[in-house]
Design a protein that fits this description.
Length: 258
Amino acid sequence: MCWWLIILSVITVWVASLFKILNAPNSESDAAFLSHGHQRNVLLVIAHPDDESMFFSPTINYLISRGHNLHILCLSTGNADGIGNVRKDELYQACTVLKVPLEQVKVLDLVDFQDGFGKLWNHKLLAKNVEEEVITNGIDLIITFDNYGVSGHCNHRDVHHGICNLLIETSQRNIEAWELVSINMLRKYSGPIDIWLSILTTMCYPGGQVHCLLNEHPKKSFLAMSQHLSQWVWFRKLFVSFSSYTYVNTLKRMVTTH
């Protein structure tokens, strides 16, 4: 009987959390993010095709729904299994679902940025490539992974360090940058339930340094990820269903020191 009560309680909280997302998406914290009254030119920097759907879809939905001009730079084609061209096309299909203009989606295929564990990426070269996109598209805000990179993947972490290098070493120091906060395993697979802890986290950081963005269209995230057919195996279907990153993103202002 005790186990049934626990299961029923979890289901109840899950449903209540999902109801909160679908019916009251604008929490106090996320309503303040980029609410300066003008359109921002935003660059989302990711490592592989499908990162945008698996991890950043709440952020993408938030930005697009509020009229910001979003560009996506993917540093590799995800060619670890030799299907980089397929995965590149899948990224474009996913971006169509997410309503990101395809002319604002760019995928690199450079020798220095190849997908795979143990494939170390040159941080300075990465910063140079990102800077080119910043200058070309008039970018004034960058969003990317934090130091752990959600899953700990070395490519995700290299993207973070490359952006840090850009902020420190180049002349583009007036650019605002935000990182997706990595969370522990229990929270990561708690689905929409994690929104309560995410909202609470933002309250511990005064001054607008952390924002919690609820996903107003979680079904769209699932549909976007399903466009990555080469990756759409059973465990990724479970991931998208149970991952808190489908339902909420916590973004933290990146602060670098010289």
